[in-house]
Amino acid sequence: MKALPPYKRFSQLVGILRKVPGVGERGALRMALHFAALSPSDGRKLAKLLLDVVDNLKRCEECGNLSFEDRCWVCLDGGRDRGIIMLVESVMDLLLMEDAGFKGLYHVVGGLVPEAKRISPSQRKQSLERLVKRIEATGVREVVIAFPFTLKGESLTKFFAEALKEKVLVTRLSRGIPVGGEIEFMDTLTLNASFERRHPV
Ligand SMILES: [Zn+2]
Questions:
Q1: 45 plus 126 within the same structural domain
Q2: CB within 5 A of ion ligand 1: which residues?
Q3: Could you tell me which residues come within 8 angstroms of residue 189 by beta carbon, excluding any fewer than 6 positions away?
Q4: 76 or 177: which carries more pLDDT confidence?
Q5: For residue 118, how far is its CA from the centre of ligand 1 (angstroms)?
Q6: Percent of the chain clearing pLDDT 70 (strictly above)
Q7: What confidence tens digit (pLDDT) does each residue in 10-68 have?
Q8: pTM for the complete prediction?
Q9: How far away, in angstroms, is 186 Cα from ligand 1 center?
Q10: DSSP 87-146
Q11: What is the 189 CA–ligand 1 centroid distance (Å)?
Q12: Predicted pLDDT at 132
């Protein structure tokens, strides 16, 4: 990139920021300049926090959520309904479901953020084995599938639903019209799915 100053450490910083999905060359350059413009105390704090996260953040042994301990805050929370486990693709999705007020437990199948690439067959097989152990050990009564309604999500749903339906009640988040959604702007797949899942009023 022509706009970079001729300092290797600066261009290395830009190069690493460029690895963040969705950040282009200019975005990475802008971010590096913003970091350079931080006050020395904020800049050091950022570097220290990043180092701490990189070195110490791990995945919860129970559910795969992010955690600085062996178990995450969700698994340690005594006020949860432990009979229901929500299957999510990523930690990002878990956090969004938390925000939406879900009060059961989770099982994270993929990584920290949703990825465009598919979850590998060995990864989903391992994830299923861990989940089955949890179900057998703790008497879970329901698994709610909250995978996205994409090709990747459909294939994950099929895989987990088929393997689990003999052991436990398997449900899935319903597809439908979003709050505030106008019928005229809905695609036909969404309209069709929301019709199929209609309920008495
Ligand atoms: Zn956990």
A1: no
A2: 60, 62-63, 65, 72, 75
A3: 175
A4: 76
A5: 23
A6: 99
A7: 999 999 999 998 899 999 999 999 999 999 999 999 999 999 999 999 999 999 999 99
A8: 0.85
A9: 36
A10: EESSHHHHHHHHHTT--SEEEE-S-SS--SSPPPHHHHHHHHHHHHHHHHHHT--EEEE-
A11: 34
A12: 95
29 and 110 inside one domain: no
User: Do 85 and 155 fall within a single domain?
Assistant: yes
Mean pLDDT of 183-201: 81
Per-residue confidence (pLDDT) for residue 86, from 0 to 100: 96
* Ligand 1 centroid to residue 112 C-alpha, Å: 13
Question: Domain containing 39 — which CATH number?
Answer: 1.10.8.420
Is 183 domain-assigned?
yes
| Gap from CA of 107 to ligand 1 centroid (Å) | 8
Q: How many domains is the chain built from?
A: 2
Instruction: Report how far Cα 125 is from the mean position of its chain's Cα atoms.
Output: 18
Residue 45 shares a structural domain with residue 88? no
The residue range of the domain holding 150 is: 79-195
CA of 158 to the centre of ligand 1 (A): 24
How far does residue 170's CA lie from ligand 1's centre (Å)?
20
* Cα 98 to averaged position of ligand 1 atoms, centre (Å): 13
Q: How confident is the model over 63-75, as a mean pLDDT?
A: 97
Number of Cβ within 10 Å of residue 1's Cβ equals 11
